[in-house]
Inverse folding.
């Protein structure tokens, strides 16, 4: 399935919905959306991964890029990641640099 | 405007090319492409071979044009390459003349010696496709790990407690309860264990890429496959062992190792790598051609005048470490691990080899050892030598140190083992307990030069050391001819397992005696993985080839040997609580702070009167806490009485300054929980003037 990355901003959060397979050939698309998201200086970067089927190491590299681009004050949420992707994030230790949740919106409602 | 230096000038098929940059060696990501650079003194031509990941056949073979060779370096930039999904290697053409030291063979595809990731053995134990034309495959790595604020910890060497361990063995046993057994990721799950134990450095047996299938063979006894389990046979110096990574099959082992180091650092634990530069996995002329042999055999290996391989490693070949080219690759490698992986220190396997010249003669001023000692990037890294080799060069106490090198103190091991079983002399033991000033002080080398150990991966475990007189290595399939014959071990009355409660009680005491001596010795204590739990290997003192329970740590021992674990844990806590046990400088045997006590004084069964006679089995010493760390910090007084006699002995205790009283911290003659007290909870000793030590027992008192 072809990779897509769709950015939408709401309040302090920049949300990027990823679908399909994220590998070296598609990583640049993701990276471009991160760059765009960073312009508005959001407090949260929310990555909606429910429909992301596969992430190669190039995808993880963009996550690292995102963390450094956004800065340490921006929380990165990984939402609804599928088991295989979550497992990779855990094994490589990337999970410690992000907040993995099932549902970002209900989280937002709770804190409101 | 487009940069001119990233503009292609040549084409090969669909690949756009340009002359590369010779430095750095290896494959480096640059804007728009990958820079390849490889060295060979004698090759006449070189071809870059590209594969799609895991593919059987190459997708391209790109000869380096003549104008792409600078000096002896072939260098080329390839643009628009799918760097995440390619594997690369080289074909080198040149003379094939073993007598002259040349093994060029352009039919072979060679691993880049600077490869940062190596594919081909991605998952531990999966039988390789032996028909694959390229077994160990160079891949390109990314150096973009998010370290946040991490940096090496720089713990003072004398404050270290090292835990020597094997990555796979640590969590491979089903009892480990981790998600990904036997991996780097699994170690992360066990960090709380290190913290509870109290160690502050883990020393990982080799994690450079090696081939577990090297010399693999069925066990003549069980039929089980015997493999190159420990990993002392390097395939690639720059790449972590993929098979140790839960993410090896995804090629993310670099990230996994870095995540482990970062997390260990966060928890106050340093990481020391056991590095093997004395030889490679290519063996002698009968071995496989993986990399160095085909690239530049005559440069990388020590060769006899007839072209045969010198074998100072006992493994078929010997890396020509003091050749300037080889020196550089060792230096580049260590710098890479120190800077890119934040590694805190290195332990050099058979390090005496690193001081030999091209003909094998020991050098008085070995350039490699000097270079490493003074390198600015390695300046804060611990450098630890296993100061001997398989060619008979034994340099414990005389390793060329340049004020930097520490040593695995084999003499400490031997002396303490002998004393423990009632042999040896109190004089030798006393030197060990002081940080071996007899070996190091006259050279201006401090106690932390001495890495004190009683057991290590080579040889018996602690439990086996008190259970076997002789090695039992039949399971290795070498007719019990392998492994060390001089073990200085004692089975306490029966060889191997016994249900004799008296013998088992003695073994338990002897293990605790060993731990107690290790933890009160000046220098750096090193504990072998599992000794804190009484792990045994059925008397096998060389389990290099077993991927089974002989090596795997059984975590159920935490329950069955809880008392031993408690003893070891509290012994380490005792050491960590008392800076007087962790001095940077050797004792001066005098009072230089005006406390009325010398920094160390020696005693026997009579206070102030040590018996140094050869047959004596009792010794005691008193450390004055006001001299801790050369008088810069204040500590308690510590009295250690050691009775290695087979009978109980009454020890007269030296008096303390007024208002201080002796408290009992350790008495190995007692059973748990009275054998050791948590620091700070020690009860006051009833009789302040003397104490009865049981046979083969140690007492440690704290004066406060």
């Amino acid at each position: 399935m072809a990779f897509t990355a769709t950015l939408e901003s709401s309040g302090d959060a920049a949300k990027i919905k990823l679908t399909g397979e994220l590998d070296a050939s598609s990583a640049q698309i993701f990276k471009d959306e991160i760059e765009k998201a960073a312009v508005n200086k959001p407090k949260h970067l929310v990555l909606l991964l429910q429909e992301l089927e596969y992430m190669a190491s190039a995808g993880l590299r963009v996550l690292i890029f995102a963390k450094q681009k956004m800065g340490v004050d921006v929380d990165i949420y990984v939402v609804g990641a599928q088991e295989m992707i979550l497992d990779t994030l855990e094994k490589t230790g990337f999970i410690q640099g992000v907040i993995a949740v099932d549902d970002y919106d209900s989280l937002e409602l709770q804190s409101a | 405007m487009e940069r001119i230096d990233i503009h292609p000038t040549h084409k090969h098929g669909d690949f756009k090319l340009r002359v590369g940059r010779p430095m750095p060696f290896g494959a480096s990501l640059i804007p728009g492409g990958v820079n390849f650079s490889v060295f060979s003194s004698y090759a006449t031509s070189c071809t870059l071979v590209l594969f799609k990941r895991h593919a059987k056949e190459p997708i391209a073979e790109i000869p380096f044009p003549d104008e792409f060779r600078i000096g002896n370096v072939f260098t080329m930039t390839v643009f628009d390459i799918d760097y995440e999904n390619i594997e690369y290697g080289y074909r080198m053409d040149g003379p094939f003349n073993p007598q002259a030291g040349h093994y060029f063979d352009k039919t072979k595809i060679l691993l880049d010696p600077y490869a940062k990731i190596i594919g081909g053995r991605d998952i531990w134990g999966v039988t390789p496709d032996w028909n694959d034309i390229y077994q160990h495959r160079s891949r390109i790595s990314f150096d973009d790990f998010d370290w946040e604020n991490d940096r090496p910890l720089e713990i003072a060497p004398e404050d270290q407690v090292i835990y020597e361990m094997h990555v796979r063995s640590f969590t491979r046993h089903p009892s480990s309860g981790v998600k990904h057994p036997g991996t780097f990721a699994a170690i992360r799950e066990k960090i709380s264990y290190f913290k509870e134990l109290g160690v502050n450095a883990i020393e990982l047996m080799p994690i450079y890429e090696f081939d577990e299938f090297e010399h693999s063979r069925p066990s003549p006894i069980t039929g089980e496959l015997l493999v190159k389990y420990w990993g002392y046979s390097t395939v690639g110096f720059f790449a972590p062992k993929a098979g140790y990574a839960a993410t090896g099959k995804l090629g993310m082992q670099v990230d996994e190792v870095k995540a482990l180091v970062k997390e260990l650092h966060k928890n106050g634990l340093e990481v020391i790598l056991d590095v093997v530069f004395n030889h490679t996995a290519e063996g002698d002329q009968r071995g496989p051609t993986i990399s160095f042999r085909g690239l530049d055999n005559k440069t990388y290996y020590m060769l006899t005048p007839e072209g045969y391989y010198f074998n100072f490693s006992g493994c078929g070949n010997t890396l020509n470490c003091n050749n300037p080219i080889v020196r550089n690759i060792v230096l580049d490698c260590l710098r890479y691990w120190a800077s890119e992986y934040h590694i805190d220190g290195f332990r050099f396997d058979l390090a005496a080899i690193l001081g030999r010249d091209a003909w094998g003669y020991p050098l008085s001023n070995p350039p490699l050892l000097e270079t490493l000692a003074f390198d600015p990037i390695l300046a804060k890294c611990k450098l630890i030598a296993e100061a001997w080799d398989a060619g008979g060069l034994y340099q414990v106490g005389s390793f060329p140190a340049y004020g930097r090198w520490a040593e695995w103190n084999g003499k400490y091991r031997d002396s303490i083992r002998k004393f423990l079983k009632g042999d040896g002399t109190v004089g030798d033991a006393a030197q060990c307990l002081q940080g071996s000033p007899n070996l190091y002080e006259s050279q201006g080398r401090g106690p932390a030069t001495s890495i004190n150990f009683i057991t290590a991966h080579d040889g018996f475990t602690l439990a086996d050391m008190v259970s076997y007189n002789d090695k039992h290595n039949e399971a290795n399939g070498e007719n019990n001819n392998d492994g060390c014959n001089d073990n200085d071990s004692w089975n306490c009355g029966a060889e191997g397992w016994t249900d004799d409660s008296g013998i088992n009680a003695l073994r338990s005491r002897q293990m605790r005696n060993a731990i107690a001596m290790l933890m009160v010795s000046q220098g750096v204590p090193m504990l072998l993985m599992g000794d804190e739990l009484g792990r045994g290997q059925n008397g096998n003192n060389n389990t290099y080839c077993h991927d089974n329970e002989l090596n795997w740590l059984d975590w159920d021992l935490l329950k069955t040997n809880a008392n031993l674990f408690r003893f070891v844990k509290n012994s380490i806590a005792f050491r960590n609580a008392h800076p007087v046990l962790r001095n940077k400088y050797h004792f001066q045997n005098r009072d230089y702070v005006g406390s009325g006590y010398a920094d160390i004084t020696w005693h026997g069964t009579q206070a102030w009167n040590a018996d140094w006679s050869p047959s004596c089995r009792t010794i005691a010493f008193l450390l004055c806490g006001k001299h801790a760390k050369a008088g810069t910090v204040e500590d308690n007084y510590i009295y250690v009485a050691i009775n290695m006699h087979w009978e109980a002995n009454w020890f007269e205790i030296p008096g303390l300054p007024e208002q201080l009283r002796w408290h009992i911290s350790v008495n190995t003659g007692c059973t748990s929980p009275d054998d050791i007290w948590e620091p700070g909870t020690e009860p006051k000793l009833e009789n302040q003037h003397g104490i009865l030590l049981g046979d083969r027992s140690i007492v440690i008192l704290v004066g406060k």
Remarks:
- The two ends of chain A are 36 Å apart (CA to CA).
- Helices of chain A lie at 27-39, 57-70, 83-91, 104-111.
- Residues 4-111 of chain A form a domain with the Transcription Regulator spoIIAA fold (CATH 3.30.750.24).
